[in-house]
Amino acid sequence: MVNIAVLVSGGGTNLQAILDAQARGDIHNGRVSVVVSSNDKAYALERAKQAGVPGVVRRKKDYASGAEYCRALAQFLQEQDIGLIVLAGFMTVLDEEFCKNFENRIINVHPSLIPSFCGDGFYGLHVHEAALEKGVKVTGATVHFVNAITDGGPIIAQKAVAVEPDDTPEILQKRVMAQAEHILLPRAVSLFCEGKLSVSDSGIVSISE
Ligand code: GAR
């Protein structure tokens, strides 16, 4: 059984999708054992509590530097015997040492079809604002392994979502979450826990069903 840590910063709808999948029995060979929030006011913490999962707060500003924050977080996760880290709307950047420590064991969900609208500065609602500004007719979500390059790690799964003429960033965000993120992320978590994801030397993910 893989111990899963879900790292959050905000509303936690992706966390909820994982918890719901777990309650349905759709996460095979894994369970969410802790939720770590970078924000003590995140509603995601309430979702964890309601599901009976321990929630802890780890804020970067409580540490002397980003490197110290990452080291302390890595140590905490190792003590908890975490096998998979899921970034579900986690808005704090993790450094290279952290990413190396957990190579191919960190999964992130990003609200666009990478390599579009990704990298530094593209997070949350900003991603949908940029997609609407560009006038793309199709957007979507990507689930990928995390490395030191922001949104640059091996891609596990992607799903396209239509952009509608009257979309606002908020409306588009909700559609991308419902039609893509909340479906892709729990599925990728389960595939990981079942040992069905492998990454080639050149960074290509293959899925054995
Ligand atoms: C989600 O749309 C997620 O893809 C995005 O933040 C939102 C968090 O929502 N993450 C990023 O932009 C990371 N680059 P949630 O707290 O309701 O899951």
UniProtKB/TrEMBL annotation:
Keyword check for NAD: no
GO molecular function, one term: phosphoribosylglycinamide formyltransferase activity
Residues involved in (6R)-10-formyltetrahydrofolate binding: R71, N108
Domain Formyl transferase N-terminal: from-to ranges: 3-189
Site (Raises pKa of active site His): D151
Active site: H110 (proton donor)
Domain of life: Bacteria
Pathway assigned to this chain's UniProt record: Purine metabolism; IMP biosynthesis via de novo pathway; N(2)-formyl-N(1)-(5-phospho-D-ribosyl)glycinamide from N(1)-(5-phospho-D-ribosyl)glycinamide (10-formyl THF route): step 1/1
Coiled coil residues, start to end: none
EC number: 2.1.2.2
Physiological role: Catalyzes the transfer of a formyl group from 10-formyltetrahydrofolate to 5-phospho-ribosyl-glycinamide (GAR), producing 5-phospho-ribosyl-N-formylglycinamide (FGAR) and tetrahydrofolate.
Family: Belongs to the GART family.
Matches recorded under HAMAP family: PurN (MF_01930)
Protein's recorded name: Phosphoribosylglycinamide formyltransferase
Species in which this protein is naturally found: Butyricicoccus intestinisimiae
